[in-house]
Amino acid sequence: MPLEVGSVAPAFALANQFGETVRSDSLVGGAVIVFFPFAFSRVCTDELGQLRDNLDVFDAAGVSLVAISVDHKYTLRAFADANDISFDLLADFWPHGSVTRSYDAFDDVHGYAERVSYVLDGSGTVRAVVSSPHGQGRPMADYATALSSVEAAL
Questions:
Q1: CA angle 151, 2, 74 (to 5 degrees)
Q2: What are the pLDDT tens digits along the chain (154 aa)?
Q3: φ/ψ (deg, to 5) at 153
Q4: C-beta atoms surrounding 128 within 10 Å
Q5: Count of CB atoms within 10 A of residue 119's CB?
Q6: H or E segment at 43?
Q7: Where do the domains of the chain lie?
C-alpha cells in the first residue's frame, strides 16, 4: 500500500545512470518520484518515453522528475542512452530495493518496484499518488491532475 497523502516522504541518496549521487533533499521545489519495475521492459519503456516526451509538464509545475528501479546503474545508463532519456534514473540496486521498500512501492513476491509515483511538494510532503496495476502504464493525464495538488499547496 503506497505512502499516504500528507505523509513526509523518506529521504534517500541513490546513484543515477551516470553514477552521480542524487539526494532527495536536492529536489528543490517539489518532485515527482516514479517507481518502475524494469528498464527495457515493454510497458516501462513506453511509460518512461511518455514522461520524456512530456517533460514540459513537469518543468511548468516547477518540479524535478526522477525515476527509480531496482536495476543497476549500468543498465539504467544503457536504457537512458537507448531511449534518449535525460532525467535522472536512479538505481535502487543494493541493498536490493531498500529505498523502494521505504516508499512502500516494493513487490516482495516478485522482487521489483510496483508502478507507483509520488508527487511531493518542496518540503517533501506527499501531495498525490499516481499508480497503476502491473502491466499497465500510468496515464500522463493522471500526472497533470496530480501536479495541480502541488500548485494548490503553494
A1: 90
A2: 789 999 999 999 999 999 999 999 999 889 999 999 999 999 999 999 999 999 999 999 999 999 999 999 999 999 999 999 999 999 999 999 999 999 999 999 999 999 999 999 999 999 999 999 989 999 999 999 999 877 655 5
A3: -80, -15
A4: 20
A5: 28
A6: helix 42-53
A7: 13-153
Domain 13-153 top-level CATH class: alpha beta
Residue with cell 541493498: 95
Is the entire prediction scored with pTM above 0.85? yes
Cell of 95: 541493498
- 152 three-state secondary structure: helix
39 is written with which cell numbers?
528498464
From residue 21, how far is each of 17, 29, 54 by CA, in Å?
10, 19, 25
The residues near 83 (Cβ < 8 Å, ≥ 6 apart) are 45, 48, 49, 52
Q: Identify which of 144, 44, 24, 3 has the alpha carbon closest to the alpha carbon of residue 90.
A: 24
Cell of 34: 516514479
